[in-house]
Amino acid sequence: MSCGEPHETDCSEVLDHLYEFLDSEMPDVDRDKFQQHFKECSPCLEKYGLEQAVKKLVKRCCGHDDVPVDLRAKVMGRLELIRSGQTVPEHDVSATSPGTPQES
């Protein structure tokens, strides 16, 4: 998605890192660039608003459930792989129980 207008920070970069912005998981200098982009680009601002609303809805509807420790560990492990640039397998064989048929 791009609005077709030139920006200091490209629309694709903003959308690729939108959840890092929403979750406050990026350096302040990048947050400032994104905030400036949202002031200039209404399509990206609209997408930001939509994703922010979805995140709030999920938190409101599912925020009371405790996350199983093993699931949290798997998710955190995958995030670390992604951040380090390693390939993440689409289907993790260790995630299936013994005797559970695997998808083909």
From TrEMBL:
Compositionally biased tracts (Polar residues) = 94-104
- Which residue ranges does the record annotate as region Disordered? 84-104
| InterPro entries noted in UniProt | Anit_sigma_mycothiol_RsrA (IPR024020), Znf_put (IPR027383)
Pfam families for this protein: zf-HC2
Residue ranges annotated for the Putative zinc-finger domain, each copy included? 11-44
**NCBIfam families xref list:** antisig_RsrA
Record protein name field: Anti-sigma factor
**Which organism does this sequence originate in?**
Streptomyces longwoodensis
